[in-house]
Every structure is written in C-alpha cells, then in structure tokens.
Amino acid sequence: MEGLLSLKHLALKLREEGNNLYSALDFEAAIKKYCAAARISQEDPVPLQNLSAAYYETGQYELCIAFAKKALHMTKASGEDDVESHSGKLEARITKAEEHSNATPTREQKKRRIEIMERLGRYHQSTQSENDYCPVSLEDAQSLFEPVMKELVPKDGSFSFFIAGLGDARNFFRSLIHIAYDEPGTISKYRYHFTLNDANRHILARDLIIFKLLDKLSSLSHSGDKSLKVMNTIFFVYAGPIIPECAFLQLQEVISELLESLKGNQQPLKWVHLFENDIPFYIGALENWTTEGQALKTFSKADVVKVVMESMKKYHSVERDDFKEAIGYKCVKERKVYSQSAMLLPPSRIMLLEESFMFDFFTKPGPDGSTCVETSTYELRSWSMNPTMLDLDWHAATGRVNSILGAPYDPFDLARTLVCENIMLSKKMNPSRLFDHVEPFFRAVAKAIKKLGARLQAEVVLGDYIDVAERLNFNLYYDPNDHDESTKLGHPRPKNFPLLYDCITLSNLPDYKGGNLTTFLHALPILKQNRASGIYSICLRNAPVFPNMDYFLSEYQLITSRKMLDKLTGVCIASEGTDPVPLAENTLYKWYPRANNFKRPVGTLLPRKQLRLWFHGLFLKLALPMPSPTPYTPNNHQVSSPLNLSILFHQLAHLRLLGYPSHWLSDILIPLFSSNLTTTTRPPRYSPMEPHHVSTKHPAKQLCIAPFSPEMRNLANIFSPLLPFRLDPNLIYPLDKIHEYKINFRSFLASHNTQTLPTCLILVFWGSGINPNGFRSLEPDNNLRVLLDPSWGDEVNGFCKGEKYENWRAKDVIVWSTFKFDIRKKKVTVWMPQDLVDQMMDGEWKCALWRRDTWRILGAPAKVEAVEVVDMMKMERMWDEDRE
C-alpha cells in the first residue's frame, strides 16, 4: 500500500512539474514529465489529458488526437462527477486538432499549385513586357563544385547543380573546369547534372550556340587552324559586338545546325536536354539572328559602333592602375581602339589567314606613337554586327536606342572575371590582346566537356527560377515515358533528373525577386541538407544601399539578427563579402548545421508573440511599401518591392514545414481578414528599412487594413488546399463565387505615357459620391500611400488625420495586388469575388492602375483620371470551372 501511495505521489509530483513547465511554455520538457507520470499512473486519464494539451501546443496534432481520445475513453469510464466537463474539453481539443492537421490529398494540392502559378503570379505587374537582356554577365565566374562534396557521395554517385540567371553561362563553364581538374588522370564514375535556367529565351538560345561551338572545339586537336577558327568564333560571339566575316559565317553555320535539330524535334547535343515546350521559343530567337532574320535588318554595324562608343565613355574615362595591370599594356591599347570602333583583335594567325588587312590598321602608329585605327576605312570591310547581342523583343519593349547590345558592358572585364586558379588554366605569357586572356578559359571548358563525356548532363529550363524551384520542390512533373494519363499533371521531365541540389547559385536575381524572402522560401527547400551544400547570390543592383547583410535582411524580411534568421528560415550565413561594399561580393547561405531543419521542436523557433508581430509587420510592408527614391537617384540606390500579397500564403505553408504549429499560423492569418488589426508594428516609414527601424517599438494600436483585407480573404480560399489548417468558410469568400474578370484600360491609357516601369503596379478601386457616413468620398491622388497608411496622420504628421480619412479607408477604397497586365492590349486579368465586384458596380466605384514605386497613378503625372468599374469589368469563368 505504501508503495502505491509513493508511486501516486511521484506521478502527482511529475504532473505538477510538467504543469510548471507548460506554464513556462517549455512544452517539450513538459511532455517528458507527463509521459513519466502516465507510465506510473496508467489508470489515471489526467496525465493523458495533459499530454494531449502539450502535444497540441507543439503542433503534433496526431499525437494530440490519439492521447485525447484515449483520455476521453478513460474519463467516460471513470464515472466521476466532472466527467462531462473534462469530456467536453477533450472533444473540443480533438476538433481543434483535426482542423489544424488539415491535409489535402497530394494530387489536389499539385493541381491547385499549378493553377495558382498560371493564374495569379507572384509579382506586381509591370509595363515592361519582356525580361531584361544581359548577354554578357558582370560577376566573376564561380565554380559551384567543391571537392568536399565527394566525401558525402559514393564513388558512382551523382552531383546536381542549379544555376539561375544563367546569363553567359560563365558559372557553368567555371564549374566544368573545376570538376575536370579534380579528376586528374583518373577514371571516374561520378556524374554531374546541371539545371541551367534563365527567364530570357534569347539568353538561352545564345548559350546553346556557345555550347555547340564548345562541343565542336572539344573534338578537335588543340593545335591546328580548324581548332583556332572555332576558338576565334567562340571569342567573338561571346564578347564582340561586331565580328569578322570568318566568325560570322561559322556562327550562321551553327545557327543552321541548331535550327535543323530543333525543328526536327531532336536534342541539339548529347549532353544538353531541352524541354519540348521551350523549343519554339529558342527557334524564334535563333531565326532572329540568321542572315535573313530581323536583327541584321533592324540595326547596322554603324548603330552598334555608336552605342559602343557612347557606353565606353563611361568605362574609358577611368583608367585604374589595377585594371591596366590585369589586362596588360598591349590590351590597354586594344581597349582604346575598341572604344573608338567596337573592334576586338582576332589572334594573329586568324588575322594572317582571314583578315590580313587588319595588320595595316592595328600596327600603324598614331601621332602619339600609340596604335590607331582608321575606323571609317575599316568599316567598309566585311565585319558584321554580332546578332546574338540583340534581343529584338527587349528592344521593342523598352524602345531604348542604347538597348541594341542589351545592358552596357566592357569586354575587357573578361580578363578579370573569366579566371581560375593558375594551376587550372594554361595561361599565355605576355598576352597581347583580349583573346589571349579569354582563350585558356574556353580551351579548358572544351577539355572538360570531352573528359566528362556521357557523365555530364545539362538540363536547360526557360522561365522564372522561382517557378522552376517550386515545381522541383513539390514535384510538379511527370515522366514523359509514363503511359498512364492519370499521372500527367504538371510538366514532363525525365524521372532520373534530380529534385534536390548540392549547390545553387542565383546570381543577382534576389535584387529583383524580393530579396531573400523568395530565396529562402523557394530555393532553400531544393537544397540538400548537408555540410557541403549551399546557395550563392550577389547583390549588383543596389549594393551600396546596404552596409552589410543585416541591412539586406531587415529590408526584405524584417529580420534583425542571425538568430532570428535561423528561427524563421533554418539558414545560416557561411560567408559574406568584405568592405567597402560587401553585398557586391557573393554571399553563401547554408542550412543551419542540425540533423533536420524541418519539423523542429517549438522551443527552437521564434516565440508565438514574436512570430505574430513579425508576420503582421511583413504584411504591412508588402501592402504599403515606402516609395522608391526619386528618378534622380542612381539606379544602384533604388530598392523595389516586387512581391504581391500571395507570398504571405507561401510563407505560412513554409513555416509549418519548419515546425511552427498550425494553430499559431491560423491565429496570425485570420486577423488579416477583418477591417482592423491591433498590433505594435507599423507600416514602413523608411526605404530601405534598417535594423533599428525594424526593432523600433510602438504602442499597441488598432490599424485599419480594410483596403487590403478583401484580397486576403480571396487569396485564403484560393490557397486553402495548400494551407496546413482549415479556415472557417464564413471568414473567406467562397470559391464558387471567385471569377476571372477582364478590365479594359485601353481608352484610359492610350493617351498617356506608359514608359517601362518596374514590377510595381496595383489596382485601386474607390467609391464616388456621398458615402453612407455623409462624407463626400475622397478622390485618391498622388498622396495615395499616405491616405492608405492608418498610422501616418496620428504618428508622422497631421496630414490625412481625422474621421473623414478613417471612414474612407474603412469603406471607400480597395487595393488589389494579384493580377496579370498585358501592356500591349492595356488589359488586366484578375480573380475577384463576384459579390465584391457587384457591390462596386452598384456603388458606381472607379478603378485605376497605380504605381507603388512612386505611388502615382499610371500614365497621369498629376491629375487622377479613371473610368467607372461597371464600364470596365467583364466577368468570365469561375475559378473551379474547367478550362476549354
């Protein structure tokens, strides 16, 4: 008897200790105490009740339900007086746990995810219809391969690398050189898969030409004129705005060979895989560059020379000593010639064989003793414009004369950026021209291609890297060889291609994709979790704005410390750049070194209150970003906010994967469906947001978010199959009432200037006339951001303060961020709830497109002009209506 009393006392003591830990929010430790108590008192339902409560708080809902059901059975069987009370609590907990363990069937999730990618988009829309064209990259060539990776892979294993923003493929080439160097004289069984991605079809078509030439070079002896001619063509196609006849003719031969393969539905090379859906885009780009294509008909060699001369004034005006030393004295003279004529020197042997008259011009001393060139005479020769430097789509979209060659570049930077360690390249002594600097690099690439042979696979993918990463992360692919039609959801892709990668490089894409918010949501999940894996990125667009990485994290993610970074993302920063502009160098991100970064214990995550504050701050920053600096500010000082509100739902799903309980996440989302949000955070008041701005504490305040809550309610239902919890249907718009609408802005925008703008457009709807409160509705103007900010009038200045503005925000304005805009047709496609649209039509609301970078109406510099919604919007299909 004493033993039983002693055990009962011990169980009670363990439960009390568990309760104290539970109250202190140390749920994992409390669970251990409750488990010990349950083992001792196996007939007592109370420890099981405690366990179900603790498991609920940690987000382990299956265990919560299991222990709650067991406790419920034991409680009902006990016959005690408070059975009904305890049973009611357990039943309520089971219901809540079931709501927060929502798991939509995988196929339905995939279907909805594909629909969202196709219909909503993730960025604010732009008046620029084409992706930027940068045929020559600016960053240093970097290898994605590290020998330490081999310690984690069997000798017949494979490595996978993802290169986003492929550009001129220098990182791919640099990686091949490194891989081949790491296999000296050995027979290796390692295989290497590269996923090469860019959003611009002309970039990838141009790279295919280089790949084809390198493949030819790999099959030729290093010595010999034939090999040198191929190398000469590679050099000029890669770097030269104008090219000699011999290179031009070989370029046209390669284009013809590629077109023949692609039109015959064949892969262009044994080691290159193209996707069938992308091939028509490459064909169109290649056809633009043929002798009968539009590139050579649209622009002349003289046009190119003029652009080069103008762009080189920028570079040539600064002659740094370190630059002269890097390229050599003779190359400095060649650079002067280039700045006057856009011509680069072929190797001497090619000059002798094909361009002998060049000796007359490049060896003739000028008045000051330097090499000179008679440009006017030389232009009569048979050189041609390099058509691969031109993206006609981009030029037509931007309308800029200086866009003939894409982004400005100095080819002599290649002497410094296409480099490897000396032991990897056979460098020429005393290089006499740029060709001498570049040749060893491409010779080494060709040698690597030959050495790797069938062990090399390059998968070329056209599109936004985030879309590609999302398809990989959620396996939105099917095997094209599978004859089962029921499995064909998403895109065809060989099943032996990887879904996870050893290394990923994003170039400077985060500059344009919302910083690391998208990096860690989309690129990180496809990175292998081991000590050798990593993600590289660099900030080239606005690096001077950010003194260090902490400022970058503050602006784009509202993250103020490395500890907070780990808690919200599972990421650590392994290496970063050095002063004076550290972000202009590569930053390396890795998974935090732990066994598993998914489903982490709650105690290792951000506390619940801090998570709520952070998420609501992120919502306010996405909804109401500060305007970008004035147009007079240098481009490298402009900070954009390209992501629409849909990113918040991707963030919620990702937080659940990290281990955040679903009931925490529903608790932070649901307040964004209402008209008001009580919080201690605020919309941003600075651009960029620095760490001390983010950390500033404010008193609790009720903020009116009514202009944004309809879109949040709309998105919540669309994303509901992807969320880790079920939402009350009464809080969101029903899916069968969400329709596709077309909004025609042709009559409004036709007379206005719609010059190329960044991803910054929003739809603004507002009421007119007298509103229900007796106030005449406001007409939004170029102070729209101040009008929408519910804290500005009270806490920043007295403008837009008072009942008139509060009522307008609450009832007379709606802002929408998720839509598609066709600048050519001046037409918006948007998914909205029918009830809301009908309400706006009945109330004679107006609609206009607004810029969020300046918070001005699109097309009108001062006066707001708009058309009533009823005259602009046309309802089409429902969301769940099958496509025709």
Kindly list the characteristics that best describe this protein.
alpha/beta; 3 domains; eight-stranded mixed sheet; four-stranded antiparallel sheet; DUF4470 domain-containing protein; DUF4470; TPR-like_helical_dom_sf
Q: Any chance you could write out the topology, listing elements then pairs?
A:
Layout: H1 2-23, H2 27-40, H3 46-57, H4 61-78, H5 83-99, H6 106-119, E1 158-164, H7 170-181, E2 191-198, H8 201-218, H9 225-239, E3 242-243, H10 245-263, E4 272-274, H11 279-288, H12 294-298, H13 301-316, H14 321-327, H15 329-341, H16 348-353, H17 358-362, H18 375-378, E5 384-385, H19 392-398, H20 414-417, H21 434-452, E6 456-462, H22 465-473, E7 477-478, E8 491-492, E9 503-505, H23 516-523, E10 534-537, H24 549-557, H25 562-569, E11 571-575, E12 587-591, H26 608-623, H27 647-658, H28 662-669, E13 676-679, H29 691-695, E14 701-704, H30 709-718, E15 738-744, H31 746-749, E16 761-766, H32 784-788, H33 792-795, H34 803-811, E17 813-816, E18 820-822, E19 827-833, H35 834-842, E20 846-851, E21 867-868, H36 869-872, E22 873-878
Parallel strand pairs: 1-2, 1-9, 2-6, 4-6, 7-8, 9-10
Antiparallel strand pairs: 3-5, 10-12, 11-12, 13-14, 15-19, 15-22, 16-17, 16-20, 18-19, 20-21
